[in-house]
Amino acid sequence: MRDIKEKILHHEYPKMKLPDERSLSEIYGISRSSVKRALDVLVQQGIIFKKRGSGTFINPLYLKNRAMFRYEGSNLGITDSFRLDGKKQGIQLLNYRVIPASKEIQQDLFLNENDYVYKIERLRLIDEQPFMIETGYIPIKILPSLSPAVLQKSIFNYLENAKGKQVTRSYLTLTVEPSNTADQKLLKLNENEPVGVMAGVFFLDDGTPFEVSNMRVHYKYMRFNTFVSVGRD
Amino acid sequence: MRDIKEKILHHEYPKMKLPDERSLSEIYGISRSSVKRALDVLVQQGIIFKKRGSGTFINPLYLKNRAMFRYEGSNLGITDSFRLDGKKQGIQLLNYRVIPASKEIQQDLFLNENDYVYKIERLRLIDEQPFMIETGYIPIKILPSLSPAVLQKSIFNYLENAKGKQVTRSYLTLTVEPSNTADQKLLKLNENEPVGVMAGVFFLDDGTPFEVSNMRVHYKYMRFNTFVSVGRD
DNA sequence: AAGTGGTCTAGACCACGCG
DNA sequence: GCGTGGTCTAGACCACTTT
Q1: Which residues form the HTH gntR-type domain (chains A, B) (predicted)?
Q2: Which residue from A52, A80, A154, A206 has the highest number of Cβ atoms inside 10 Å of its Cβ?
Q3: Residue A54 CB-density burial (10 A; 0-12 exposed, 13-18 middle, 19+ buried)
């Protein structure tokens, strides 16, 4: 997959068409099924598309306008899902305590009756400008040692560096709401200025639900790019 | 896949856990590979998640979020992307004319200097309730015959039924804005009630950019579910 | 050690598009 | 008719979790 992607970017398929799957399987010395798995990922990323009976083609738009497609579902979490290019990020810890997991959170994180979670409220800033209020719930059994110092930085980075665990997926619901008084105060909004809300669960690479998060985002900073493809139901 | 989805929605897996893949393959009399393909789609849709060594679990958030109108990663287009379970949809044509494509639209739709596009403004309703203002630009050369009658219904369906072309992908940017006076009037919003904006391009299955669209959605009807996974590059 | 998902294989047969 | 992608099979072996 990596090799084919490279070749596409380096224009090594001048006819905008890939070799057929059976040839690719021979070229790379792998089974056709494996070729299919690889190509299906590229389809998902919008890089190629397949036409039954005709072949597999490179999406010209991907080459012409790579910037447009570059989210590629490959950015996740706060640290890089917002366009922070070179801007200075800040985190202000608003509140932080350990509480018993509510019924709802138990359900979302697959916890038991007597499991505890951190409740973490943070204000995120970019270039001194507050742009997001984040409320997160993390099971203490996943991160038994979480200090305020760590919470001033990216929890995801901490997880990866200190624990070798990666946050690889999230299931988020995006909605829109008028701002409430807390939003207005913390995010410096007027009464008629709204927030975007991203709420959901983050998962570790092994599938463990890791955090329930609710993010209220200043509307000017709320921007979400998505490449949608039709599913066959 | 359909059967399992049904069972999930009808809470027929009370432990939030599916049978293991080998059992499913026996239950349905299919190979384990086929079970995997089916489950992988449900994973992609954020309905379930898998934990190697443990099993396959239902995403509790998915059940919670089965609210009214959803725009899912797996569905596209207006007609079926919003889950309109039994509700009556309406379309009101606000405005409709042919204009030269602006520079920006030329770029987005890969048009030439002197190409023309339809500019189509429509108000969408659900159960008599207006919920979205839609402004679309479509090249006349793709749909030379577009009548107001067609515009009262789904353009995507028309494309598929009359022209045999399918809209299979879109690239959308989601943002949040305070409502303007036009929004307030058409969508029956108060001054401090916002709209969600979905703007982007729709593509045909052969990769042709087909429509530039801007959708302003009543905030109560704006709900976007997304399952993000980190790409392995 | 047993159970569960992850990856991969080598092939069969089907459905679609095109010459 | 032939070449192409689509679907499916029946298994092998690996990696991780739980008992």
Answers
A1: 1-61
A2: A154
A3: exposed
